[in-house]
Amino acid sequence: MAKTLFYFLFGLIVVAVLSMSSCKKPLSFSKGNLSFSADTVVFDTVFTTIGSTTQRFKLYNNDNRPIVLEQIELVGGANSPFRINFDGLTGTNFADIEMEANDSLYVFVEVTLDPNNVTNPMIIEDRIRFRTNGVDQYVELVAWGQDAYFHYSYISAGIFDLNEGTWANDKPHVIYGAAVVDSSKTLTIPAGTDIYLHKNALLYVYKGALNIEGTFGNEVTFQGDRLESYYDDVSGQYYGIYFQEALSSTINHAIIRNGTSGIHLYSEDNTNTDYTLTITNTEIYNNASYGLFLYSGARVKAENCVIAKNGIHALIVLEGGDFNFNNCHLLGYGNGDNTGAAVGISNYFVDQLNSVTNIGSINEGTISNSIIYGNLEQEIVLDTIADIAVTLNFDMRDNHIRSEVIPTDPFFIDNTFNEQPLFYNSDESNFRVWWSNASPIVNAANPVTATLTSIEDLPRDAQPDKGAYEFQ
User: Fold this and answer.
1) Same domain, 157 and 126
2) Alpha-carbon separation of residue 164 from 155, 168, 169 (angstroms)
3) Residues near 444 by Cβ (< 8 Å), separated by ≥ 6?
4) How many other β-carbons are positioned within 10 Å of the β-carbon of residue 222?
5) Exposed e or buried b for every residue in 421-451, given b needs 16+ CB within 10 A?
6) Which domain holds residue 258?
7) Per the confidence metrics, is the pTM higher than 0.90?
8) Predicted confidence (pLDDT) per residue in 304-338, tens digit
9) Are residues 229 and 358 in the same domain?
10) Tally of structural domains, the chain
11) Residues 421, 427, 431, CA angle at the centre, nearest 5°?
12) Are 372 and 404 in the same domain?
């Protein structure tokens, strides 16, 4: 009897245990994602020797249920100069970590760089990938990795890097966001200064003045901040130099390459008695959209400049503005999807948003002793609207032009058309002449109006050449 009672009671216990087990609900995890205290971690220390610094940020689970971090990965892996520490763990890849409901965790990031290693990009970048519920989220890591002068603006946050006086040229200058020349201020950039701009960055001249004072062989250079050889010919790495209602400015012996719009001139300060910008002996090439963008009344004078191989136009004039180009190469040869004529000139702009057509004057529209050429059949396009309130005053003379339709306008005077200039190698951006006896641009400029020296500071012959160079 006792034995039977024992088995009966034992059976009841087993049934109760199994019943409680079967009633227990499985643990429910969040189907959401994380949030972060920062989307970018910036190391803004200038490293002059091998150094290390630490930053931190927080990640949050704002759900009332726990969440599974399926993977946390330092994308650059073991070769990354960054190191991360997550929840006390150091490494480059973590998996299947549970995070409690309404909890937060710190992530610590360190970086060790040799800033004097010239093979490093000016800006070192990596990212941390967080995967939850099949969704990837990223925190960007950015470190300035070379001894340089750094300029950074975050305009939306009201942070402005303001510049005036003269930049030193003993170290490179790196622009992150924008370097600003503000109203009534003047910035001078001396010969030999190297300027590197991060993605979308610009040198922004707002109602101030900029004077770039390069010399032949010691030019002032503008390019992207990625120094690996892969980026040598990648356009669109930054925006460019932007002048808005600027005071009279000058650029001499500069090289501006691989941006989006090399030089953008917007409007004119009404106190100027001279050109908004006088640009001489300068190369502007391989920009994603335009070499020089003249908009809404700005004025530019250019001599001995090579503007070539830009994505859409070498020169675009939109909604009016004045220009005077002499002994310049205004060339196409771009390879963008929207490649247009080397020179596109219009005195109007259609504002699609407000259904308004804005029309401006071109009081001076002069191109002389220059080469307007490229791969297209038509490398100069004029599209203008006449209006009683505006002026159109063009003078195109002594140029060498590629144009499928020979212009009959009276302001096209003594130009030559459609003969190959015989450039040395347009694919490699060498636009000097390789065979002087056969080239139509040699000894073909007007000796009265041609510049006295070339882009290479060589004296012009008694019978000078068209374009920026002088064949010797």
Assistant:
1) no
2) 18, 12, 14
3) 398, 400, 416, 465, 466
4) 27
5) bbbeebeebebbbeeeeebbbbebbbeeebb
6) 149-433
7) no
8) 999 999 999 999 999 999 999 999 999 999 987 78
9) yes
10) 2
11) 40
12) yes
